[in-house]
Design goal:
By secondary structure, this protein is of the alpha+beta class. The chain is built from 12 helices and 20 strands. The two termini are 37 Å apart. The structure holds P-hydroxybenzoic acid. The site of P-hydroxybenzoic acid has 10 residues, from loops.
């Protein structure tokens, strides 16, 4: 088979890229190692930045998001006995939307199916070849066991941190940076109306806790737990008790409403950046190039920002035979990647507690400054609500 852009990965990055290129009349084929059911049901974060929402709107992908999502004007930051609202609208005139990544992926799949996109789900043995040449190609075994080859002008690696694209960057050109955090998140999904109108990020000596949501009837909550935590040790009652303590049940009359837990998982926390994001005719986007810890919900938004730069760069390269945007893609994308990497690290290390009492005092001092100084609050608001795509 032949196409202009072979896209490895049918998560939000790969699907959005096929959509934006499709609008320009560029032909793509998308391959994915998971099944479509798996991709459409995996649980990810649920906050869309201002510029992500605008981009989805501009490309006809925002209808259901505006119907079913919820606009939030800020977040709550708290520590024992105090809760503060950080109001993005009044600080930086921007908002965020609560709409699960799973829902964004469903909307993208629906749009691509309407456009007649060619997909291969459930493929195995994917390998990228001759990425430094003008004739790169991808080989894989399709879901029915048939060995398959796609020849392309360009390969887009949108296949996440475990996919083959990241590893297809030769060691001689590849640089990596990594931070593994000494804690994980225990995440739960619960069939209960959220006990808060906007997200709560809570510092607590027992560990960080967060109250997020998916809809008016489904809550998403997280607890900081040690790495390698056995999920079997966390009964539903133990989870709700820990959430009540850390989120301040009873404080100023606020109550945490418990309900049936429908999903429980432990998520490790890691920051990772691999550069460059382009080598020859291989371009990386999203988690294939960088991972952020979930605090601040930057992962999906960063993937969207990468693709918003990559689509015009590939369009210019394939239609105009001009190379400037493609040449600058890696450097341009990485400016924003490092900004979000710093912000995610900062939110994470400000809110997760450890054994060191000196660190705890520094964290509390920082939180109090952010909550009480307009300059401090504005820094958080600008980064959380999202910097412009080309930042
Ligand atoms: C989520 O809803 O899953 C979520 C929200 C905000 C975060 C992280 C996760 O910072």
């Amino acid at each position: 088979m032949r196409t202009q852009v072979a896209i490895s990965g049918a998560g939000p990055a790969g699907l959005l890229l096929s959509h934006l290129l499709g609008e320009q009349g560029i032909d793509t084929i998308v391959i994915e190692s998971r099944t479509q059911d798996y991709v459409l049901s995996r649980i990810r974060a649920g906050i869309l930045e201002h510029s992500t929402v605008r981009l989805l709107d501009e490309h006809g992908l925002g209808q259901r998001l505006h119907r079913e999502g919820h606009e939030h004007r800020g977040i709550y930051l708290q520590w024992p006995h105090e809760r503060h609202h950080i109001d993005f609208r009044s600080l930086v005139d921007r908002s965020v939307w609560v709409y699960g990544q799973t829902e964004v992926t469903k909307d993208l799949v629906a749009a691509r199916e309407r456009a007649g996109q060619q997909f291969y789900y459930g493929v195995s043995d994917t390998a990228l070849h001759d990425v430094e040449s003008d004739a790169p190609y991808v080989t894989f075994t399709d879901a029915s066991g048939t060995p398959t080859r796609i020849d392309a002008a360009v390969i887009a690696g949108c296949d996440g941190s475990f996919g083959p694209s990241r590893a297809a960057m030769p060691d001689a050109v590849r640089n990596t940076w990594e931070r593994v955090y000494p804690y994980s998140w225990l995440g739960v999904l619960a069939d209960v109306a959220p006990s808060t109108d906007e997200l709560i990020y809570a510092w607590h000596q027992d560990g960080f806790a967060m109250h997020s949501m998916r809809s008016s009837t489904v809550s998403r909550l997280y607890l900081q737990v040690p790495n390698n935590t056995d999920i079997g040790a966390w009964s539903d009652d133990r989870i709700w008790d820990a959430l009540a303590v850390r989120l301040g049940h009873g404080q100023d009359g606020w109550e945490l409403r418990p309900g049936p837990i429908t999903d429980k998982s432990v998520l490790p926390m890691r920051s990772y950046v691999q550069t460059p994001m382009r080598h020859g005719n291989l371009f990386l986007a999203g988690d294939a190039a960088h991972i952020v810890p979930p605090t601040g919900a930057k992962g999906l938004n960063l993937a969207v920002a990468d693709v918003a730069l990559l689509a015009p760069a590939l369009t210019q390269l394939l239609q105009g035979k001009r190379t400037e945007l493609a040449e600058h893609y890696s450097d341009t994308a990485l400016r924003r990647v490092w900004r979000c990497t710093h912000f995610s690290w900062w939110m994470t290390t400000m809110l997760h507690t450890g054994a060191d009492p000196f660190d705890a005092q520094l964290q509390l001092s920082q939180l109090k400054w952010v909550a009480s100084s307009e300059a401090g609050a504005m820094g958080l608001a600008e980064n959380y609500a999202g910097l412009p795509i080309g930042f």
